[in-house]
Amino acid sequence: MTRKSSVSADRRQFLAFAAAGIGTVAMPTISRAASSNEQVRVAVLGAGGRGGEIARAFDKCTQSKVVMVADPDQKRAEKLAASFGAEAVTDLRKALDSPDVDAVAITTCNHWHCLASMWALDAGKDVYVEKPLSHSQWEGRQVVSAAEKSGQIVQLGTQQRSDPIQMQARQFLHEEKGLGEIQFVQANRLGTRGAIGKRDTPLPLPKEVNYDLWLGPAADQPLYRNNFHYDWHWDWNTGSGEMGNWGVHILDDVRNVAYQDQVSTPRAMMAGGGRVAWDDAGQTPNHHFALFETETFPTLIALSNLPLVPGKKGHWQAKGELGVSAPNSGYAVVCEGGYYLGQRGFGKAVDRNGKTIRSFKANVGLVAAHVENFVLAVQSRDGSSLNAPIENGHHSTGWCNLANVAFRAAGAFDRDQLIAGSEISQWPALIDAMVSPLSNHGVSVSELKSSPMFTHDSETERFVGENAEIANSFLKREYRPGYEVKPVAQTQAVG
Asked: Where does the record place the Gfo/Idh/MocA-like oxidoreductase N-terminal domain (predicted)?
């Protein structure tokens, strides 16, 4: 894609602004003119499994091409770049400085998503950033503000937003009132994983990895897991656990279909769970359940990486008092007259006896469709055409961030305190479904944590009231020098 003028600010000017602590997009950016017949030149930042999938989607899109791949792991960068005849670099800032790059696809580790987005916006690039948007709620808001001020096109990689059945289900539930009034939602991510090991000595770092670049904003801490790549998901320093990994997809669907995007973040939440049965180096819970209260109806979520019975196939069960089981990686919208059961690529409405009323399915390649939606928006310069605009993605990521905060701020397990959180009978039934079978794994209740109800102000994006101080301490991380996310002046009052 050609430009009328360079969109990259002089690197020395950029560093001067950053050193002064001035937030991103405080310095001017130059908007480019784009025409619909120009190919969008994309740099993929992050060459892991997801990076490869996103790169292939951009490569197959006729309106875009992959011209550069950046990854701190040199071997990974070179291998993926070779697939597309693209340039391989280890430092993503080289892609941001390049006049031959129009847009970036950020598929790094979670802890890099926001900083990479901010730097890309500073450089005048359009941004496709993988979910979850943020590693903490505060930094997600900075990306939203930076995107608004820059005028760039920014989309979150929640590809289910590009599935036509989402809007069809919304219409069925809300306009047609096909199942009557919504009472509550239960979301599930019940998929087995394994332990990540627990070494006696720190993991030797791969020689091909520039570890300083890999860490970026994260603290420099020894790693005691067995594998360097991917298992960063289960370390709070770099990942967001299963809640941020899969939970964001499912809760984004819930916000879209059940709440029609009219609820930004929940007004209150509580959580329970633990990392149990494995005795590994992971920190994030492998067994996690939460209650979200909103101004309309509540949502419950159950996540587990454990099988119901050790050594046997089969995921955890979290049916509770529901007349039907919600999908293992999906959700049930519980209504007066039945249930809407939604999951990736498929949905169906059933009556109270489980009889199918209507099915919803579209033969759409979701990643390809989502990437194309972004590319077309880049060409047209019409951000309103995005299926997953960044503020919407910030809100959906927020549900996950807040559920993680509730877990991290939790204390000793207190079933009575949890049950008092909701009058919906499914809530104590879900708690029991998540807790009682843990005895099969030799896990006692004393190994679990639970939180009180935390109250959250969606306007200020901070906790208020009782127990707010400890919860607010998890809303912003400490950044490593040289890799700070700078505050951006807000367009509205956000704390």
From this structure: 40-157
CA dist 255 and 159 (Å) reads: 14
- Report the C-alpha gap between 370 and 366 in whole angstroms: 6
What angle in degrees, to the nearest 10, is found between the helix axes of 137-150 and 390-408?
A: 170
Q: What is the pTM of this model?
A: 0.92
Alpha-carbon distance of 49 to 332, in angstroms, equals 30
Q: In a 3-state reduction of DSSP, which class is residue 322?
A: coil
Per the listing, tokens 């994030």 go with: 284
Using CA atoms, how far apart are residues 492 and 474, in angstroms rounded to an integer? 22
Name 313's Cβ contacts closer than 8 Å, sequence gap at least 6: 307
Cα separation, 158 vs 297, whole angstroms: 23
Q: How far is CA 318 from CA 111, 322, 466, 493, in A?
A: 30, 9, 30, 39
The span from the CA of 141 to the CA of 390, in Å, is 10
Residue with tokens 């720190």: 202
Question: In order of start, what are the domains of the chain with their CATH numbers?
Answer: 11-161 (3.40.50.720), 164-363+390-472 (3.30.360.10)
Question: Where are the strands (E) in 380-427, listed by range?
Answer: 411-412
